[in-house]
């Protein structure tokens, strides 16, 4: 006799065996007891959580010789035929391969005939979202008013792909991912029954890798039992290509320390040992997300399925970093996960991504920056030791400070405007906007910083460039959003027109000045053009 895989052998046969879906089970049981079973159900949820198993159990509960009952016997001819898939009254249809309108029309033709041996004819359509639009339309009328002996059960991983007309005709039940602790308990029971020797840490790894899917967990356990007679954590790491816990811990420590050299040596060791870098980045993202949870939540156990000792270790590591730094690191790692997954050379993408994360360490606090501005506005020195210093909340790199210590004043402007700091901030804005707003950044390059406070940033354009001022004003919301993204608070952008520097010049001097402008040069080269005529523009007032 051929070997029966664990995923099939241990498939749930009764409602009590549908772990992690207690809410759905309760509704179905109560519907059977109160005789309120509807004619069409939709079971949606992730793969391997029990959708089609629940449909089969419902079919047995309704067609059991002792029923309808919420506890089918599993022994009568009807129950046995449904279990082994031989019942002619309970049909399981693959929506992916039977998705045409002709297939649905054939189904509708046989719906009207009474069941042969069972009380109900039950049609289970798996992956129902794969049906074509025409097939759904053909099903509508029958689905709304089927014969009394027919029940439809649809299963799908993507309910959003179903037409609204289908959804409105079904009773929808959402299946959830199975909690890791429930997966582990079930795997432990199965491994003991099947005489599979497996360590507790290895069960933990399988439950985590399965990501809420019982079918995936049993498939991994089946594979591991063939790999070794005594399954350990190292066996699973070799089998699944997962990084060791120590590697993730060492790599995360290096990232928090900003030690790119250490990062590179760890990656070199990982590659030489044959690990796949893609799951490595995924594990890193999850680890830093867990650090953020223990940093924020009062009771992390409600959000993380970890033991007390594991949470204690996470807290210890999280104490070395602020929540602002963590948010930046997680953002960078999420970006890195996509890059590594699609890169032709994952190692290089990984190394470059970790290089970016190293810039986060030792960043200057925004609150410290704002404190300096406040001190300057009140006539205090930026290094006034009498003023209380807020705790560091790193968000800006010290090696590339947003606010410099050397404060200068613009001519005819009060000393509250931080010239050097504003210029550096403005360059960051231009660099950040350039990939998506290249034309706008060309215009912003012509602006002069006229003032910078905690609430406003004032820029000016030469009087002969008032058209640029108008264009920038229309895009001020984009610039303000970028400013907020960089420094963490809302800054209002004011656009003013400065006196025309070209006023009083001859046309030849003005033409030379215009032709030397980098924006004009780029435009002329791009369109292979030339200047035909120059007309002075009238000066306008403030646009902010």
Question: What would you say this structure looks like, in words?
Answer:
With about 550 residues, the chain is an alpha/beta fold. It folds into five domains: about 5-175, 3-Layer(aba) Sandwich (Rossmann fold); about 180-240, Helicase, Ruva Protein, domain 3, CATH 1.10.8.60; about 245-360, Zinc Finger, Delta Prime, domain 3; about 365-405, no CATH class; about 415-544, GMP Synthetase, Chain A, domain 3 (2-Layer Sandwich). The chain has 24 helices and twelve strands. The protein has helices at about 5-10, 20-35, 50-65, 75-85, 100-110, 135-145, 165, 180-195, 200-210, 215-225, 235-240, 245-255, 260-270, 275-295, 310-320, 325-340, 345-355, 365-375, 420-435, 440-445, 465-475, 475-485, 505-515, 520-525, and strands spanning about 40-45, 90-95, 120-125, 150-155, 170-175, 195-200, 230, 365, 395, 450, 455-460, 490-495. The strands form four sheets. A five-stranded parallel sheet has the order 2-3-4-1-5, covered by helices on one side. Strand 2, helix 5 (about 100-110) and strand 3 (about 120-125) form a beta-alpha-beta unit. The radius of gyration is 33 Å and the shape is extended. About 30% of the residues are buried. Mean pLDDT is about 80; it is low at about 380-415 and about 540-544.
List keywords for this structure.
disordered C terminus; 10% strand; extended; Rossmann fold; alpha/beta; 544 residues; Helicase, Ruva Protein, domain 3; Zinc Finger, Delta Prime, domain 3; 12 strands
